[in-house]
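Q: I'm writing up a methods section and want to include an example of the input and output format. Could you take the sequence below and give the corresponding predicted structure tokens, formatted cleanly so I can copy it straight into the document?
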Amino acid sequence: MADFKELDPLLHSQLRLAIMSLLMSVESAEFVYIKEKTGATAGNLSVQLDKLATAGYIGVTKEFKGKKPLTTCSITKRGIEAFEKYVESLKTYFKN
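A: Here is the clean output for your methods example:
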């Protein structure tokens, strides 16, 4: 296995990888949008966003829009670097 690079276990989860992929392509995204695009339940999405935020991969902003809570997520510089490294490491598994 020496030729295979280690994959970041935090990004190796299907839902967390989907969240990161989505956030790589936008400046920021609201919780409802991420939930809709990933098909995740609100509870599971909240847990996974917390894990990514704790790792410093995403930033989470909570505020109110009128009387409704609004959670917005964006990828951090650290998150971009981790995602790019993950993709490069994954490529080592496809080489002959």
